[in-house]
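W.,

You were right to be curious about this one. When I first looked at the sequence I had no strong expectations either way, so I just let the prediction run and decided to look at it fresh. Below is the sequence, 222 residues in total, followed by the output.
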Amino acid sequence: MSNPWPGRLKRYALNGVLPGTAIGAGLCLRMVHEARDATYTDWFGGGALGGMMILIFWPLFAVIGVALAWSNGLPGRKAERVSIQMVCYVLVFGLVLSGGLLGFRQSDVVRAKVWTEFTHAAKPLVEAIARHQEDTGSLPGKVEDLVPRWLDRVPRPPGGRPIELIQKPDDEFGQPWRIRIDAGKTPGSFGDWFVFHPTGDYPQSGYGGLLVRMGDWGYYYE
């Protein structure tokens, strides 16, 4: 009689390895995507976090797969084997859920670092707008009009998103002008906005989301 264990172990180990690899790789890609326009350190950090998740999930799912194979080979009633299998499936579900939450949390950390770095790069832009207003008595039509007299070059936001200069002294936020960048084009950031208010006042809710302060800027996430 042939031994069914080699094929059984291989089948269930693969069933464990593949989900673990897919989840880890997906989280890795998400975090690298968030850091795509950051420094090399952030790129490496995002990729390293995802890579660590692959290393963690891969063996965990493989162990669960082997446990499923072991339960199938147990003697006794079928109900007992099914109970052990259900425990394994619950563990898989828990790992998927916790891994997803961890991945979103870590990618949020990477995203916050990327946008905070941009606030430092954008300081010359804010100063150039103020100088333009002092010199001409008006605001520039768009930020590109500041180059080259008031600004060497326009800073590039993460993802190369356009920078919108809004000139509405009587707008809903009570700002003489403001800068707005659509930050909602990455996975998990559906309707987010990154904004600058020259008065430094940011409502806790606005732009369809809730406020997270990043330096002198505000990030509104849905």
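Here's what jumped out at me. The longest strand covers residues 209-214. And, maybe more interesting for your project: Strands lie at 164-166, 178-182, 193-196, 205-206, 209-214, 217-221.

Coffee later to discuss?

I.
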